[in-house]
Amino acid sequence: METASKDKQEVEEHIHRLKSYLTRQMCVDLIEYITIDKYQGKKVPRDIHIYYKLIDKPLTDRKNALVK
Prior knowledge:
Helices cover 40% and strands 16% of the residues. It is built from 2 helices and 2 strands. The chain has helices at 2-21, 24-30, and strands at residues 31-36, 48-52. A two-stranded antiparallel sheet has the order 1-2. The mean pLDDT is 77.
């Protein structure tokens, strides 16, 4: 439980810092797409993958991005 609380606090701090530097338009310009791993229950955290333009290889078919 302590680890989950710490993880949540770290995520909130990261988001707070990003909001102070990035605008919505900057995010739209930088992020190609985002995928989230399949939900496997409350006790299993899901990974969030952010793919950036010009850095990561884009998907050719985004409809299949959620299928892993």
